[in-house]
Amino acid sequence: MPRPATGTGLKRRLRRFQAWVRLHIPFGLRLALGILLMLLGLVGFLPILGFWMIPLGIAIAALDVRPLCRRWRERRRPRD
């Protein structure tokens, strides 16, 4: 039976990827990687590169930038 397209699988994969990046990539390199992904996402019309790289770059850069990290956590928190 196919699972419904709710997006929860994508959220779970993003959290797992963030945890992997946090454990395996050094502190300053994470910010550089996030910025690089955002810049490459701007040329999203190319076949391999895509606009999907922009939110991924923001998520990775947010791990090193305290205000972005706080804002990212607030958005993930369920609202009442």
TrEMBL record:
Keywords: Membrane, Transmembrane, Transmembrane helix. The chain crosses the membrane at residues 21-43, 49-69. This is Uncharacterized protein. It comes from Pontibaca salina.
